[in-house]
Give the backbone structure.
Amino acid sequence: MSYLTVLRRLVDQQQFVSLKNNVQVYLNESADIQALPLKALAHAHLGERVEAEQALVTALQSIAELDEDAQVDLAGVYCVIYQIDKAVALLESVLASHADHSLALARLAWCRLQVGELDGALTLYQKSIALNQNRLPVWSALVRLFIETKQGQLAQESLDSGIACLNETHTQLPESAVEQFTKQFRGLQLEVWIANQEIAQAEQWLDERRTTLNEDEWVNLVVAYVQTLAGSNQHTEAEEALRDGLKHYADNLILISQLSELAQLQGRTGQAIQLLRRLIHLAKQQGKPEAGYWVRLSNACVHQNEVQARKAAEKAVELVDEMQESEATPLQQITALRLQAKNALAQVESQEQNFELAESLFNEVLDENPYFMNALQGLGQQQMQRGQLDEAIALYERIKAINPAKGYSSLINARQFPDDEETLVRMEKVVRQPSLEGDINASLLLQVATAWEKRKDYEKAFSLAREANESSQQHLHYDSKAHRQACARTRYAFSKPLYQHRKDCGVDSKMPVYVLGMPRSGTTLVEQILAGHSQICGAGELGVIPSRIQGLNRWERHTGSGRSYPDCIDDLTPYVVEGIAKGILEELQEYDTDALHIVDKLPHNFENIGFIKFLFPNAKIISVRRDPRDIAISNYFTDYQAKHGGMGFAYDLEWVGEQLADHNLLMHHWQQTFPGEILEINYEEVVNDTEGMARKMLDYIGVEWEAQVLSFNELDRPVKTASVWQVRQPIYKTSQAKWKRYENHLAPLIAGTNKKIEWDAIEMLSLPEPGFLTEGVAFFNDKKLDDAERCFKKLLHHIPEHAAGNFMLGLVYAEKNHLTEAIELMEKAHKLCPWNKHWRKDLCQAYEMTGNIEKAEALKQPKSVDIESDESSADEFMAMTSLTQSSAE
């Protein structure tokens, strides 16, 4: 047996580390060019792309001298790096003269599979296995192919044959290969049972294996089971399987990690973050590397909490710098973690618009590993935001060379479409590979749909968009009825009488300009025009208003009022409102200290106009309108970062219709509440008469005309929206009446739009005057106990279950030495907010003062309640409103 045959057996056995080591020894001793493709193949399978490319270049220099087996090895390299056409050309050339080359047949079958030619792939695999029945990877491939074609019985038969082959040949295989194929076949058995809907059998088998396998082996099986369930859209069952596994191994990092990924995928980011924090804690306890979990924590926080994202990324960098090479953590793993940590920090800098620093970090990563996908994608997206489209496209071309599906998807997003249908067919095949997300990759499929739209095959485009959106819906928690109810509550809370009774509230500033409307209505175009003015800064879609609303909600939770926004708006004193408004102005001014006006173009601020006018009575508000049918189609073809939040409606045309109706009713309410104060602009008019509409908007804001606003596409400013590529183009009219292409599919939209708008009766407490709690706290701090008592009793008259009101009244009674009544009130407050450590401490002191030491000691015991965000909410609110923190905590 030749040494090359031994090396190729290592390929069949999937022993690529051993292959890399042995082929290098062989090349050093013999310089046999026939082994060069095997060196490239080993590196490629191990993910060492730089080394694989170098070895491939060396092999290609001698391609004319390679024999047929070496050419098949070379084709294998092309398969791994996903250059399918080159692989096919080589394999077909070999098979033309050597039709019974088993490995060439198997690899050509794989290539056929990638482009969706299932029948051709099956025929080739069957020919390959007939020639060499000991080729274990081919048995695995046949099983998966039969699963994909829903031939469950044949899948089980092929699996049985593969297992029999392993049993017959295991003595001839390295122990590591036996373990690897055993693990592989166990996973395939689970896949077959799930495909055949034999879940009970799979669960029973898993339970039995737990008694015969060690923890690591059994957990790997559970993860394989979970991933297969998720790949068949059974996410509830997948989560149940993980939780069942954690009943046996509560601190297993792999199970918790998988649960975190599943939570993140389904939009439960808060839960995912808590699980990652638990992973970090457990990894530290178990002496395992933490850095990777800090990277994931940073990535989970980057779009929601930039401060925490930065802390996590910096911690990851710090931990990697401290890591020492060892058998447990080899240098290759440390290098990979270092690049991941640096890339996470780059993402944070980019999110915070520190673009130069972010670019430097991205490039440091890419200098060390030119194939680092996340850095290529992150830098490409940043260049898109900054309007550097050529640089972005060049990066996306690099991605395409590594992962064609992701590369083409990014290029489509930059409006660089494939020239041929075959590429789209291949992309669709990749899209349909099962993953933790489900049986399709919905985001990629929407990009494919957009490409078909570009080719004017509108039926195909809509069919794919509908499939992608229906797939996304399984992970969404959007409730159109709840949204409608929330809108009704907003209209009720922000009525004309509120502003009549609170005339002394707000800050007289015209600096904020709010451009709002339904998403995809043209808000980005309007903002870009305004931003061309020398006195106006376009700040993009800011979360300033929503963050203040969340701050109010956190404060209400902290005080245990039982209320939330918008109900609590009537409790804001002029002093508090001024503090919130001035804080917003300071934050806005940071975007441009010289600008007279700062534009916030968050579309969904149309829901927050009442709050905006409460803070800034003279704020300029521009409402952008567009043909609702075009809005609907544009949303339907867009995959949003906020799909698990406010943008969940975009994935169903009926939901879009209902949202459009809610928007119209809200805007009608605002126009009636603030007559003549909101400027309404139509997108179609902006497109057809750009100068006229620009003059109208600038006049409304109160600045002089500047012709440069018409050159909006030349502005050098970042744009972080789904319209990022559009604002870099001159005005075009092709987006008008786009809905006509899909007219036959608009019935759900029409039904949603025309559905009768109904909501449950609104019951909302209205306080006669604001600030009972804050005023009472101020009196208490000044030792004016009677005045404080009066304020707290007024508050409790209206809201008897107000936790902070009860507690503060208890403190007043304690100061007056009415300890029995004080403790009763403080106990009530503590029961409502058991997490408040300050209240717990004061209640302990009250117990001790009455001699009830047993109760005091019991209360001092640590509780398992973890509401860290609420513990800090008082400080956040006080800072936000410029109030002084007091014992109201």
